[in-house]
Amino acid sequence: MDRPREFVFDIPSHPGIGIRDNADGPPVQPRDAATVILLRDAADGPEVFLQHRVRGMAFAGGMTVFPGGGVDPRDADASVAWAGPPPSWWAERFTCDEGLARALVCAAVRETFEESGVLLAGTEDAVVADVAPYREARKALESKEISLAGFLADAGLTLRADLLRPYAHWVTPREEPRRYDTRFFAAQLPPGQRADGATSEADAVGWQRPADAIADAREGRRTLMPPTWLTLTELGEFVTAGAALAQPREIVKTMPTLVRDGENIRVILDPTED
User: Where does the chain cross the membrane (predicted)?
Assistant: First the structure.
């Protein structure tokens, strides 16, 4: 599935979407980040795990998002036990060097565990089904007391890159005061695991059908980031989580442009080579 080459829509103005007062000046340098679209099958079709971020957070406060966050320098640790497509494969899909590709995959696994309790790790033959023994390690990861590589080594676990799929590449608009260069991944909830809200970054979490999440946004119950809105629109076309993961993706680097339009913000999407 290819993203539209140009797509324009309006969203209500929200404190989580900032536009710099000095937007004509040099833009803030974006930080590398990873986001994971976590899917599961339900009776009415696939559902996606969403978090309502705590208001007042520096980035996307009060908005509904997928789990994710910035890359930690320790995510590039090459000692991490790894199963699945190697960093070179991810580097080709995300158009980056192998070091960054490794860090992005590790950040995706780490952030998913920190923010939802879902652990994309195990052995080369099996995925962890019970994450209860790693509850304290999860807290230590979130507080940055330990690294992902250190946690996996101590637990005797292997990172399962084969559970992830490359999905998209978004760069925060130049107009934003805080910016990220974010690779989006997709993954299916492993059997036996459950996603939860035990994170300091969200005051509510839950599984929703993509169409229901968009309806909440349209009716003012939630506010979506532009990439989240468009991703949910795309996911609404699939009848199973597996079908969504199996669909080939063209990874196009996209940076929206934000324009104030009365009480709304106009979002203009167009691929970028910047």
Answer: none
Predicted local confidence at residue 136, as pLDDT: 96
Q: What's the pLDDT score for residue 101?
A: 98
Residue 192 lies in a domain: yes
Number of structural domains the chain divides into: 1
Give the domain extent around 27.
Answer: 7-269
169 in a structural domain: yes
CATH number for the domain harbouring residue 213: 3.90.79.10
Cα–Cα dist 95/29, whole Å: 18
239 within domain boundaries: yes
pLDDT at residue 226 in the model: 81
Q: Which residues of the chain register pLDDT less than 50?
A: 1-6, 13-22, 57-58, 273-274
CB 99 within 8 A of CB 113: no
Please give the pLDDT value at position 222.
Answer: 83
Contact between 198 and 139 (Cβ < 8 Å): no
In a domain, 274, yes or no: no
